[in-house]
């Protein structure tokens, strides 16, 4: 088990290094950081001093090594736009994005899985047909449009929910959370629906397809022939067998949710990392952009690791197969 | 003679399809006495599995029982509501399927599946059920049962898995077992062992059995009576020694033409010319008439019912009054 985790982390290293190289390349080749930092007027001496100070006169791989070492310590320098440490900016913004993403993922799972099970079990009921039609909408409408429609309905016409921002937040041990205040919770509703709707319908369709597949198997027939209750057959035997693909997709989608939060955060002016990223792109704020890129890559890698561990927990065949290298 | 354990009367199973209704079973009647083993044979598609599925109430929709009745201990079970039928399955009627590689849920240990089945039907607490599960595994010949109980299905060989399936089918002590080709998927070298096990357990527990097989050797060794099916009907039924040695119906005679040793499959020894008609194209009169070497005029017009033929019953005009008896 431990060896497995270590090997997965080692496998992830090249991925992280590649992304690091990309974001370092942005530093080195996009724009001229010296010019940006010095402003309009500077002497050659000032310029040389700054170049030496930033280490820009050193060989490429030395610079890259430094970059990696700094990045590993969360050190990305100052934001060009805000003149504040990038790490600090990200730490400030991360809670907003993570709360939004987790809330959206939770919605997608908590609603998508039961809907998938229901539509898989009762294929022909009118409710199933309704869910399927509804899921088509979720899949086909672009995120920003859903966001705007929700704002129009619930903020503009009905006036029930705020149309932008996070509401009031409370600081709990350095983590600013919107989950503990009424206005924070209200502000979370529309963005999470917007962000999670696509994933919800995706998970629903996936669970439905998997359920229908599994319900045809011999072991389900045999479970029925043994006289198990419907509940045990459907949830104990069938649903559990759909979990492996559901975990995979959910894991991948959680990464996607965090990455695509950019759109939702822009629509709702949600003060998270995505919004920070978009604003940084507008200002060519390279340090923030490269830090964001690395962070997203790190999240994907971490989520993949968690997904692999969950497989391990769910499917006994993988546990044995890995050890012996046989099926 | 006491009332039979299972009685099937004029069973008719239909499959509504777009191109009309297919009659998969037509006027099937037979009974199984307490402790008796009824062998069921016939070419592929004859309706053997369908008969078993109808008895355990697991016909695949849109297939449905369209007529007749099924009685267990004199009580009608074909029209029970689903929840009542469920309690019967496993507890009164156990089932064994063909392929042990697919009948066990891969995600649960064999112990968990045994315990779950017993706890569903019997007044046992989990600890008692576990002890019982170990007993059952020992009984079906799993070595080191008290350790193997926590193994997953994929950790067993095919033959061992079928033993587990047998334990699962018997563990709630049903009075009747429907075994649908229980050894077909197994390695030839272990087929005889598994059949012997099934036979001895059934004898020991006084369990009746409906044993579907392609293997005439198995029938000759295991069954008390045998039913021969053709195109959705029983064409001959009688004591094994009569049907196997002196088949009355020309189709049975063709099937029994040579009895291969245990383990040789009938369909590879096929010696009857032609093939069974599809359900949508059953000829008028006797369904066997296009292939029958003894066909005469009446056979093409009128359909024969089961009638006394020697010591068995056969659906063949050769045994009617005034028929050209050259049997
Ligand atoms: N879903 C279905 N729709 C229509 N016909 C079906 C369906 N399922 C089975 N049948 C038909 O019912 C008939 C009986 O099938 P059954 O499985 O009982 O045959 P069998 O005697 O068990 O054959 P085998 O030896 O191959 O197992 C076959 O002709 C088959 O084509
Ligand atoms: S009824 Fe006629 S066709 Fe049918 S089995 Fe008997 S002899 Fe052959
Ligand atoms: Mg069959």
From TrEMBL, chain A:
<feature type="transmembrane region" description="Helical">
    <location>
        <begin position="130"/>
        <end position="160"/>
    </location>
</feature>
<feature type="transmembrane region" description="Helical">
    <location>
        <begin position="291"/>
        <end position="314"/>
    </location>
</feature>
<keyword id="KW-0812">Transmembrane</keyword>
<keyword id="KW-0813">Transport</keyword>
<feature type="transmembrane region" description="Helical">
    <location>
        <begin position="98"/>
        <end position="118"/>
    </location>
</feature>
<dbReference type="InterPro" id="IPR000515">
    <property type="entry name" value="MetI-like"/>
</dbReference>
<comment type="similarity">
    <text>Belongs to the binding-protein-dependent transport system permease family.</text>
</comment>
<dbReference type="InterPro" id="IPR045621">
    <property type="entry name" value="BPD_transp_1_N"/>
</dbReference>
<feature type="transmembrane region" description="Helical">
    <location>
        <begin position="12"/>
        <end position="30"/>
    </location>
</feature>
<protein>
    <submittedName>
        <fullName>ABC transporter permease</fullName>
    </submittedName>
</protein>
<feature type="transmembrane region" description="Helical">
    <location>
        <begin position="243"/>
        <end position="263"/>
    </location>
</feature>
<keyword id="KW-1003">Cell membrane</keyword>
<feature type="domain" description="ABC transmembrane type-1">
    <location>
        <begin position="94"/>
        <end position="311"/>
    </location>
</feature>
<feature type="transmembrane region" description="Helical">
    <location>
        <begin position="180"/>
        <end position="203"/>
    </location>
</feature>
<dbReference type="Pfam" id="PF19300">
    <property type="entry name" value="BPD_transp_1_N"/>
</dbReference>
<dbReference type="Pfam" id="PF00528">
    <property type="entry name" value="BPD_transp_1"/>
</dbReference>
<keyword id="KW-0472">Membrane</keyword>
<keyword id="KW-1133">Transmembrane helix</keyword>
TrEMBL record, chain B:
<dbReference type="InterPro" id="IPR050388">
    <property type="entry name" value="ABC_Ni/Peptide_Import"/>
</dbReference>
<keyword id="KW-0813">Transport</keyword>
<keyword id="KW-1003">Cell membrane</keyword>
<dbReference type="Pfam" id="PF08352">
    <property type="entry name" value="oligo_HPY"/>
</dbReference>
<dbReference type="InterPro" id="IPR013563">
    <property type="entry name" value="Oligopep_ABC_C"/>
</dbReference>
<keyword id="KW-0067">ATP-binding</keyword>
<dbReference type="GO" id="GO:0005524">
    <property type="term" value="F:ATP binding"/>
</dbReference>
<feature type="domain" description="ABC transporter">
    <location>
        <begin position="6"/>
        <end position="256"/>
    </location>
</feature>
<comment type="similarity">
    <text>Belongs to the ABC transporter superfamily.</text>
</comment>
<dbReference type="InterPro" id="IPR003439">
    <property type="entry name" value="ABC_transporter-like_ATP-bd"/>
</dbReference>
<protein>
    <submittedName>
        <fullName>ABC transporter ATP-binding protein</fullName>
    </submittedName>
</protein>
<dbReference type="InterPro" id="IPR017871">
    <property type="entry name" value="ABC_transporter-like_CS"/>
</dbReference>
<dbReference type="Pfam" id="PF00005">
    <property type="entry name" value="ABC_tran"/>
</dbReference>
<keyword id="KW-0547">Nucleotide-binding</keyword>
<dbReference type="InterPro" id="IPR003593">
    <property type="entry name" value="AAA+_ATPase"/>
</dbReference>
<keyword id="KW-0472">Membrane</keyword>
